[in-house]
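Anyone able to model this chain together with pyridoxal-5'-phosphate?
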Amino acid sequence: MESLPKENTPMQEIKDPVLIENGVRLFVKRDDLTHPEVSGNKWRKLKYNLLKAKEDGYDTILTFGGAYSNHIHAFAAAGKLYGLKTIGVIRGEEHLPLNPTLAFAKSQGMQLTYLDRTSFRDYRSAIPQLKNTFGDFYMAPMGGSNDLALAGVAELGEELNQFDHNIDYLCAACGTGGTLAGLITSISSETKVIGFPALKGGDFLYEDINEFISSVKGRNSFPEWTLNLEYHFGGYAKKKPELMEFMALFNQKYNIELERIYTGKMMFGVFDMIKKGLFPKGSNIVALHSGGLQINRS
Ligand SMILES: *Cc1c(COP(=O)(O)O)cnc(C)c1O
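re: yes, here you go
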Protein backbone atom coordinates (compact mmCIF):
# COMPACT_ATOMS: atom_id res chain seq x y z
CA MET A 1 0.00 0.00 0.00
CA GLU A 2 1.19 3.50 -0.74
CA SER A 3 2.06 5.33 2.43
CA LEU A 4 -0.22 7.93 3.95
CA PRO A 5 0.99 11.49 4.49
CA LYS A 6 3.31 12.04 7.45
CA GLU A 7 2.97 14.71 10.09
CA ASN A 8 5.49 16.14 12.55
CA THR A 9 7.40 17.61 9.64
CA PRO A 10 10.90 18.96 10.30
CA MET A 11 11.97 22.51 11.08
CA GLN A 12 14.99 23.75 9.13
CA GLU A 13 17.02 26.74 10.24
CA ILE A 14 18.19 29.09 7.49
CA LYS A 15 21.74 30.36 7.86
CA ASP A 16 22.41 33.59 6.04
CA PRO A 17 24.50 36.71 6.74
CA VAL A 18 21.39 38.86 6.19
CA LEU A 19 19.78 37.21 9.21
CA ILE A 20 22.84 37.77 11.39
CA GLU A 21 23.09 41.43 10.32
CA ASN A 22 19.48 41.98 11.28
CA GLY A 23 19.69 40.04 14.51
CA VAL A 24 16.96 37.48 13.76
CA ARG A 25 16.74 33.71 13.33
CA LEU A 26 14.64 32.17 10.59
CA PHE A 27 13.26 28.64 10.54
CA VAL A 28 11.26 26.96 7.80
CA LYS A 29 8.56 24.49 8.84
CA ARG A 30 8.95 21.90 6.10
CA ASP A 31 5.31 20.96 5.66
CA ASP A 32 6.11 20.37 2.00
CA LEU A 33 7.49 17.04 3.23
CA THR A 34 4.18 15.50 4.36
CA HIS A 35 3.81 13.51 1.14
CA PRO A 36 5.01 13.97 -2.46
CA GLU A 37 1.51 14.26 -3.88
CA VAL A 38 -0.60 15.35 -0.89
CA SER A 39 1.53 18.11 0.44
CA GLY A 40 1.49 20.74 3.09
CA ASN A 41 -1.60 22.62 3.97
CA LYS A 42 -3.71 20.73 1.43
CA TRP A 43 -3.12 17.55 3.40
CA ARG A 44 -3.79 19.29 6.71
CA LYS A 45 -7.07 20.63 5.34
CA LEU A 46 -8.18 17.36 3.78
CA LYS A 47 -7.40 14.97 6.61
CA TYR A 48 -10.57 15.35 8.71
CA ASN A 49 -12.72 15.82 5.63
CA LEU A 50 -11.60 12.41 4.36
CA LEU A 51 -12.20 10.79 7.74
CA LYS A 52 -15.64 12.40 7.94
CA ALA A 53 -16.56 11.21 4.45
CA LYS A 54 -15.59 7.65 5.43
CA GLU A 55 -17.33 7.85 8.79
CA ASP A 56 -20.54 9.03 7.13
CA GLY A 57 -20.36 6.13 4.67
CA TYR A 58 -19.66 8.02 1.45
CA ASP A 59 -17.71 6.26 -1.28
CA THR A 60 -17.31 9.39 -3.43
CA ILE A 61 -15.91 12.83 -2.61
CA LEU A 62 -16.26 15.89 -4.81
CA THR A 63 -14.60 19.26 -4.87
CA PHE A 64 -14.11 22.39 -6.98
CA GLY A 65 -10.99 24.11 -8.24
CA GLY A 66 -8.96 25.80 -10.95
CA ALA A 67 -7.24 23.76 -13.66
CA TYR A 68 -3.81 24.17 -12.05
CA SER A 69 -4.89 24.01 -8.44
CA ASN A 70 -2.89 22.33 -5.69
CA HIS A 71 -6.19 21.46 -4.06
CA ILE A 72 -7.39 19.39 -7.05
CA HIS A 73 -4.00 17.67 -7.26
CA ALA A 74 -3.93 16.79 -3.55
CA PHE A 75 -7.62 15.86 -3.46
CA ALA A 76 -7.23 13.32 -6.28
CA ALA A 77 -4.17 11.71 -4.68
CA ALA A 78 -5.64 11.70 -1.17
CA GLY A 79 -8.89 10.16 -2.38
CA LYS A 80 -6.94 7.35 -3.97
CA LEU A 81 -4.89 6.77 -0.80
CA TYR A 82 -8.09 6.59 1.23
CA GLY A 83 -9.99 4.39 -1.20
CA LEU A 84 -12.55 7.05 -2.09
CA LYS A 85 -13.72 7.87 -5.60
CA THR A 86 -13.04 11.48 -6.49
CA ILE A 87 -14.79 13.99 -8.74
CA GLY A 88 -13.14 17.29 -9.60
CA VAL A 89 -15.32 20.14 -10.86
CA ILE A 90 -12.94 22.36 -12.80
CA ARG A 91 -13.41 26.07 -13.53
CA GLY A 92 -13.76 26.83 -17.26
CA GLU A 93 -13.81 24.60 -20.32
CA GLU A 94 -12.01 21.38 -21.00
CA HIS A 95 -8.66 21.79 -22.79
CA LEU A 96 -7.02 18.77 -24.37
CA PRO A 97 -4.45 17.48 -23.88
CA LEU A 98 -4.96 17.87 -20.15
CA ASN A 99 -2.41 20.04 -18.36
CA PRO A 100 -0.06 18.17 -15.96
CA THR A 101 -2.20 18.92 -12.88
CA LEU A 102 -5.36 17.52 -14.43
CA ALA A 103 -3.54 14.66 -16.15
CA PHE A 104 -2.16 13.69 -12.75
CA ALA A 105 -5.61 14.00 -11.15
CA LYS A 106 -7.04 11.73 -13.82
CA SER A 107 -4.22 9.24 -13.34
CA GLN A 108 -5.30 9.00 -9.70
CA GLY A 109 -8.78 8.03 -10.85
CA MET A 110 -10.38 11.44 -10.52
CA GLN A 111 -13.38 11.99 -12.72
CA LEU A 112 -13.19 15.48 -14.21
CA THR A 113 -16.12 17.67 -15.08
CA TYR A 114 -16.24 21.35 -16.01
CA LEU A 115 -18.25 24.38 -14.99
CA ASP A 116 -18.11 27.62 -16.99
CA ARG A 117 -16.53 30.62 -15.29
CA THR A 118 -19.79 32.47 -14.67
CA SER A 119 -21.51 29.52 -13.01
CA PHE A 120 -18.33 28.76 -11.12
CA ARG A 121 -18.52 32.02 -9.20
CA ASP A 122 -21.53 30.59 -7.40
CA TYR A 123 -20.42 26.96 -7.58
CA ARG A 124 -22.46 25.78 -4.63
CA SER A 125 -25.67 26.29 -6.57
CA ALA A 126 -24.46 23.61 -9.02
CA ILE A 127 -24.50 20.94 -6.30
CA PRO A 128 -28.07 19.63 -6.85
CA GLN A 129 -27.38 19.21 -10.57
CA LEU A 130 -24.08 17.46 -9.79
CA LYS A 131 -25.94 15.08 -7.46
CA ASN A 132 -28.36 14.26 -10.27
CA THR A 133 -25.46 13.45 -12.56
CA PHE A 134 -23.06 11.68 -10.23
CA GLY A 135 -25.20 10.42 -7.35
CA ASP A 136 -24.53 11.26 -3.73
CA PHE A 137 -21.11 12.53 -2.64
CA TYR A 138 -19.27 14.22 0.19
CA MET A 139 -18.44 17.78 -0.85
CA ALA A 140 -15.31 19.70 0.13
CA PRO A 141 -15.38 23.37 -0.83
CA MET A 142 -13.07 25.09 -3.29
CA GLY A 143 -9.61 25.34 -1.72
CA GLY A 144 -10.75 22.85 0.91
CA SER A 145 -11.32 25.42 3.66
CA ASN A 146 -14.07 24.52 6.12
CA ASP A 147 -14.29 23.83 9.85
CA LEU A 148 -12.81 20.33 9.50
CA ALA A 149 -9.93 21.84 7.53
CA LEU A 150 -9.23 24.21 10.40
CA ALA A 151 -9.08 21.26 12.80
CA GLY A 152 -6.42 19.64 10.61
CA VAL A 153 -4.39 22.85 10.40
CA ALA A 154 -4.67 23.19 14.19
CA GLU A 155 -2.55 20.02 14.45
CA LEU A 156 0.14 21.86 12.51
CA GLY A 157 -0.20 24.70 15.02
CA GLU A 158 0.28 22.18 17.86
CA GLU A 159 3.46 20.90 16.20
CA LEU A 160 4.73 24.47 16.05
CA ASN A 161 3.89 24.98 19.72
CA GLN A 162 6.19 22.02 20.52
CA PHE A 163 9.17 23.66 18.82
CA ASP A 164 12.07 24.06 21.23
CA HIS A 165 12.44 27.79 20.59
CA ASN A 166 9.80 30.45 21.23
CA ILE A 167 8.26 31.52 17.96
CA ASP A 168 7.90 35.32 17.90
CA TYR A 169 6.54 35.50 14.35
CA LEU A 170 4.83 32.90 12.21
CA CYS A 171 4.56 33.72 8.50
CA ALA A 172 2.35 31.87 6.02
CA ALA A 173 0.97 32.31 2.51
CA CYS A 174 -2.79 32.85 2.05
CA GLY A 175 -5.25 31.90 -0.65
CA THR A 176 -8.67 31.44 0.97
CA GLY A 177 -7.21 32.20 4.41
CA GLY A 178 -8.30 28.85 5.85
CA THR A 179 -4.75 27.85 6.68
CA LEU A 180 -3.97 31.14 8.40
CA ALA A 181 -7.21 30.90 10.37
CA GLY A 182 -6.34 27.36 11.51
CA LEU A 183 -2.95 28.59 12.67
CA ILE A 184 -4.40 31.59 14.49
CA THR A 185 -6.80 29.35 16.39
CA SER A 186 -4.09 26.92 17.49
CA ILE A 187 -0.80 28.77 17.89
CA SER A 188 0.45 30.11 21.23
CA SER A 189 -0.80 33.63 22.12
CA GLU A 190 2.84 34.66 22.33
CA THR A 191 3.35 34.23 18.60
CA LYS A 192 2.39 36.98 16.17
CA VAL A 193 0.95 35.64 12.91
CA ILE A 194 1.51 37.33 9.54
CA GLY A 195 -0.34 36.21 6.40
CA PHE A 196 0.86 36.95 2.87
CA PRO A 197 -2.06 36.91 0.40
CA ALA A 198 -1.17 35.55 -3.05
CA LEU A 199 -3.97 37.56 -4.62
CA LYS A 200 -4.02 41.24 -5.40
CA GLY A 201 -6.52 43.10 -3.23
CA GLY A 202 -6.29 40.46 -0.50
CA ASP A 203 -7.77 42.67 2.20
CA PHE A 204 -11.13 40.87 1.85
CA LEU A 205 -9.32 38.13 3.75
CA TYR A 206 -9.54 40.04 7.03
CA GLU A 207 -13.25 39.40 7.06
CA ASP A 208 -13.05 35.81 5.78
CA ILE A 209 -10.39 34.88 8.30
CA ASN A 210 -12.33 36.47 11.16
CA GLU A 211 -15.33 34.45 10.10
CA PHE A 212 -13.33 31.20 10.08
CA ILE A 213 -11.88 32.03 13.48
CA SER A 214 -15.24 32.83 15.04
CA SER A 215 -16.53 29.39 14.00
CA VAL A 216 -13.95 27.72 16.25
CA LYS A 217 -15.17 27.11 19.77
CA GLY A 218 -13.19 26.57 22.93
CA ARG A 219 -10.69 29.39 22.78
CA ASN A 220 -11.39 33.02 23.48
CA SER A 221 -8.05 34.78 23.17
CA PHE A 222 -6.15 34.60 19.94
CA PRO A 223 -2.67 35.73 18.99
CA GLU A 224 -2.15 39.03 17.24
CA TRP A 225 -2.38 38.60 13.49
CA THR A 226 -2.16 40.74 10.41
CA LEU A 227 -1.87 40.52 6.63
CA ASN A 228 0.95 41.96 4.57
CA LEU A 229 -0.67 42.86 1.27
CA GLU A 230 2.51 44.00 -0.48
CA TYR A 231 3.87 40.79 -1.93
CA HIS A 232 1.25 39.59 -4.44
CA PHE A 233 3.57 40.37 -7.39
CA GLY A 234 0.73 41.62 -9.55
CA GLY A 235 -1.68 38.77 -8.88
CA TYR A 236 -2.23 35.09 -8.54
CA ALA A 237 -0.19 33.43 -11.30
CA LYS A 238 2.06 36.14 -12.68
CA LYS A 239 5.66 35.11 -13.39
CA LYS A 240 7.79 38.04 -12.23
CA PRO A 241 11.53 37.72 -13.02
CA GLU A 242 12.50 39.18 -9.65
CA LEU A 243 10.47 36.49 -7.89
CA MET A 244 11.71 33.65 -10.09
CA GLU A 245 15.30 34.72 -9.44
CA PHE A 246 14.74 34.88 -5.69
CA MET A 247 13.27 31.36 -5.71
CA ALA A 248 16.14 29.94 -7.77
CA LEU A 249 18.69 31.47 -5.42
CA PHE A 250 16.78 30.31 -2.36
CA ASN A 251 16.80 26.74 -3.67
CA GLN A 252 20.49 26.94 -4.53
CA LYS A 253 21.51 28.34 -1.14
CA TYR A 254 19.30 26.36 1.23
CA ASN A 255 18.13 23.43 -0.85
CA ILE A 256 14.46 24.32 -0.42
CA GLU A 257 12.25 24.47 -3.48
CA LEU A 258 9.50 27.09 -3.50
CA GLU A 259 6.78 27.87 -6.04
CA ARG A 260 5.74 31.21 -7.49
CA ILE A 261 2.11 31.39 -6.40
CA TYR A 262 2.27 31.02 -2.63
CA THR A 263 5.48 30.12 -0.84
CA GLY A 264 7.83 32.03 -3.17
CA LYS A 265 5.97 35.30 -2.60
CA MET A 266 5.70 34.74 1.14
CA MET A 267 9.41 33.93 1.51
CA PHE A 268 10.36 36.92 -0.64
CA GLY A 269 8.22 39.05 1.66
CA VAL A 270 9.79 37.60 4.80
CA PHE A 271 13.31 38.35 3.56
CA ASP A 272 12.30 41.81 2.41
CA MET A 273 10.78 42.58 5.81
CA ILE A 274 13.93 41.28 7.52
CA LYS A 275 16.14 43.50 5.34
CA LYS A 276 13.94 46.49 6.14
CA GLY A 277 14.41 45.82 9.85
CA LEU A 278 10.69 45.21 10.41
CA PHE A 279 11.30 42.38 12.88
CA PRO A 280 12.78 43.39 16.24
CA LYS A 281 16.31 42.15 16.95
CA GLY A 282 16.32 38.85 18.77
CA SER A 283 13.16 37.59 17.03
CA ASN A 284 12.68 33.96 16.08
CA ILE A 285 10.71 33.84 12.85
CA VAL A 286 9.09 30.71 11.42
CA ALA A 287 8.02 30.63 7.77
CA LEU A 288 5.58 27.88 6.87
CA HIS A 289 6.45 25.93 3.74
CA SER A 290 2.90 24.99 2.81
CA GLY A 291 3.95 22.68 -0.05
CA GLY A 292 2.27 22.84 -3.45
CA LEU A 293 5.38 22.18 -5.53
CA GLN A 294 3.38 20.45 -8.25
CA ILE A 295 2.89 23.98 -9.63
CA ASN A 296 6.53 23.91 -10.76
CA ARG A 297 5.84 20.89 -12.93
CA SER A 298 2.66 22.31 -14.40
C1 LIG B 1 -3.56 26.48 -1.33
C2 LIG B 1 -2.24 26.93 -0.82
C3 LIG B 1 -2.11 27.99 0.08
C4 LIG B 1 -3.29 28.81 0.54
O1 LIG B 1 -4.01 28.16 1.55
P1 LIG B 1 -5.39 28.77 2.07
O2 LIG B 1 -5.78 27.90 3.19
O3 LIG B 1 -6.37 28.67 0.93
O4 LIG B 1 -5.16 30.17 2.45
C5 LIG B 1 -0.83 28.31 0.53
N1 LIG B 1 0.25 27.64 0.11
C6 LIG B 1 0.16 26.63 -0.77
C7 LIG B 1 1.40 25.96 -1.22
C8 LIG B 1 -1.08 26.23 -1.26
O5 LIG B 1 -1.16 25.23 -2.14
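The chain has a mean pLDDT of 95.
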